Amino acid sequence: MPPVAKFGNKSKFKVTMKKIANILALTILAVIASSCASGRNTVGVTNQQQPGPVIGRAVGAGVGAVAGNVAGAGVGVVEGTSGGIHSAFDNTQRVVRYWHEEKMADGRTVLVPENFLVDKNGQIIRKIQ
Question: Rounded distance, CA 83 to CA 77, Å?
């Protein structure tokens, strides 16, 4: 006896392996049949002078553009949020060396380095000895 799935108290819907196989086969057939004409320059099996295929291509292009923009907006929001959170925890530091001239007691002029620790914006954190 095949399994029975009950929806509510009034109706019975029998799910059998044969029905599942038929639905799967029809789905695969629909996918194969709809992918016969692929590519921008492929005309396909329909007459392009009729309004149906023209409207179908226009609607398909519109839906594709909207879906692409929605996906792009979602990615942009996630990347922007990630960048904002990352910048709050970014503690990138560098060592910057400045040179200044000093006169020695014997009259010579020498360049003396000074090292500073700076943050990512170039603000001096402290002088390194």
Answer: 10
Residue pair 111/98 in contact by the 8 Å Cβ criterion: no
Domain segments of the chain as ranges: 1-32, 94-128
CB 115 within 8 A of CB 96: yes
Is residue 15 a contact partner of residue 2, using CB atoms and an 8 Å limit? yes
Quick: pLDDT tens for 88-114.
Answer: 888 889 999 999 999 999 999 999 999
For residues 15 and 11, give the distance between their C-alpha atoms in angstroms, rounded to a whole number.
13
- Cα torsion angle, 47, 50, 52, 57, sign: positive
User: Per the confidence metrics, is the pTM higher than 0.85?
Assistant: no
